[in-house]
Amino acid sequence: MPAPLGEASPRAPTSPNAAPAPPSAPQRGNSAEEVSASPGPLALPAVPLYAYGARENDQEYVERKVDFNSPLFKPETGFPFGRTLRSSLYFTDNGQIIFPASDNNVLTYPNPSASGFNGHEEVPMIAVFWDNADFSRGVGTTFYQEFSTLNTAKPPFVRDVEAKVRRYLRSSYSAAWTLKITWEKAPVHAARTDTRKVRADGTKALLNCQKTPRPTITYQAVLTTDGFRSYILMLYQDGAMQWDYTRLPSTNVLIGYTSGDGFYHNDDLTKRPPAAKYRPDQFRGYNTDLRGLWIYKLESRVGTNYRLKCLAWTGQQQEPRTWSQGLPTCPCSLQQGQQDPRFKSSRGGKWGARVSMLHSASPNQHGAGVRCLYDSQDQLIEGRQERYWRNSRQASPYRDQELKLYDWCCNRAGSAHLCARYSEKRPKIGCDGYQSPSTDSSEEAENDSDEQIDGEDK
Questions:
Q1: Most buried pick, 97, 186, 305, 416, via CB within 10 A?
Q2: Mean pLDDT, rounded, for 375-384
C-alpha cells in the first residue's frame, strides 16, 4: 500500500567506497542548501539511459526553430506536484517540464535565472537540464512515450522505474502513470559570431568553423505517479553531456524544481563551477549511488485524489449491458413516483432541502436498480441505472455509496472526461416512455371491457 503523504524517504544503502549519501528531498519552503551530488569517482557505475526511439514505440517530436514546446500531456490521475494536483504538462527544447495553469498558458522560457528558484515562481516547472538549446539547424531531436498502468499490465520499463523508486527511496511504489522524455543530441544555443579572422595585412579571411559540429547533450527524464506520490528520475548519458561551457554567453544551467506553491529545490551541483555543473553525467546523483541518476520526490501533502478514486472504481465495474435488463425509466415528477409502488422515497439527507430521491422498490433479476433525483419543484433532474440495489437509501453523498461515487467522478475530480467515464458505468435515464401503474391498469381494464362488448355483439 502507498505510504502516507509527507512520510520521510529513507536513503539507499551505500557501499564503503561510495561518496556520502545525499539528504532526502527538501520539503516546502526549503532553500535546498544541502549537498545533492558528490564528485563521481569513475569507479562509481554510470546509469545507462532507458532504451528510446522508434524501436521502443516512442514518438519523435522536434520543431526546427530556436524554441519549441511539446504537445500537452494530461494524465487521467492528475500529477501531484507540491501541494497541488496538476492537470497538464509539457516539455520544452530547453530541458524543462512545465505545468501550465491552463491550456492557453503554454509558453517558452529559454533562460534560467542566475540565482535559481526561490519558491515564489508562479509557473510550476522542473528543470531537468535547463539552459538555452537550439534545434533550428537540423541537429538533435526529442522522443517521448506515455504509460498508463492503473488497471493494466506494466511493461518492463515501468517495472524498472518502480524498482528504482523502491530501492533508492524505500517506497512501496506502484505506478499509475509514467512519461519518458529523451532529449537526444541537443545543441547549445550560440549567438552567431563573425567567422572571419584578421590577416597580417589587416584584411579578414572567412573561417570554416561554421562547418564544425557543435557539441551536444543527451539526457532523459521519467515522470511517474501513483496518484498520491510523484517522482522524477533524471538520467544523463555517460560521456554525452558535451556542451562547451567556455563559449557560452552565460553559465546558469539549472537542475531542480519549483511547484508554484512554495515547494522548491536548487540542486547543489548547479552551484558549482561550470566545469562541474555542465557535466552531471560525471557526478553521483541525488538520492542514488550511480553517476548521472537523480531522483526527486515531487509532492508535498496534496490531499485526496478524487480522480484516482474515480478511475480505480470505474476500472473495476462491469458493463451495464450485463445487468441492466428490465430496469424501469424514472417518473417525470416526484408525485408520480410517490404513487408508483415500483419506487420508494429515500430518507432525508444533506441534499434533502433541495433534492429528493426515488429508487427502485425491488431489484431486477441481476440485483440492479435505478435512482431518480428531483429538484425543489418536484421535477426530474436526472436518473441513473445502478448496479447494486439497496432497500434503504439516503439522499446524501456522505451516506449513500452510489451518490458518493457520482460526487467523486462528476464534482470533486474536476474532469468532464471522468464524469463521462462514470456515465458509461452508470447510464443516465430519463422519463421518456414512463407509464404509471394506474394508467397501465386503466388501459388493461378498458381493453378487457372492449373485448367483453365485442363478445356480446357476437
A1: 186
A2: 93
Average pLDDT estimate for 326-336: 96
- Note the pLDDT tens digit of each residue in 129-154: 999 999 999 999 999 999 999 988 99
* Cα angle 394, 396, 397; round to 5: 125
Concatenated DSSP letters of 426-445: S-EE--TT---HHHHHHHHH
> Which residues neighbour 30 within 8 Å (Cβ) at sequence distance 6 or greater?
264, 265
CA Rg value for the chain: 31
Residue 229, pLDDT > 70, answer yes
Q: Which three cell numbers stand for residue 189?
A: 544555443
**Torsion sign across C-alpha atoms 413, 416, 420, 421:** negative
Looking at residue 333, the DSSP 8-state letter turns out to be B
> Which grid cell sits at 404?
458518493
Confidence of residue 211 (pLDDT cuts 50, 70, 90): low
Reported pTM:
0.80
Q: Which of 85, 92, 87 is nearest to 107 (CA)?
A: 92
How far apart, in whole angstroms, are the C-alpha atoms of residue 28 and residue 282? 29
Question: Pick the residue with more confidence: 169 or 303?
Answer: 169
Q: What is the mean pLDDT of the chain?
A: 85
289: left (phi over 0), alpha (psi -120 to 50) or beta: alpha
- DSSP per-residue string spanning 60-118: EE--SSSS-BPPPB--TT-EEEBTEEE--BEEBTTSEEE--SSTT------S--TT---
DSSP characters for 256-310?
EEE-SSS-EEE-GGGGS-HHHHT-GGGBBPTTSSSBTEEEEE-BS-----HHHHH
Q: Indicate if the pLDDT at residue 126 is higher than 60.
A: yes
Q: CB–CB of 428/382 below 8 Å?
A: yes
> What size, in residues, is the chain?
458
DSSP class of 186: E
Instruction: Give Cα 26 distance to the centre of its chain.
Output: 22
Residue 326 to residue 364: CA distance in whole angstroms: 7
Name residue 302's amino acid.
Answer: V
Q: Which run of H or E residues covers position 448?
A: helix 437-457
Q: Percent of the chain having pLDDT more than 90?
A: 71
Q: Are 298 and 80 in contact (CB under 8 A)?
A: yes
DSSP H/E element including 180? strand 177-187
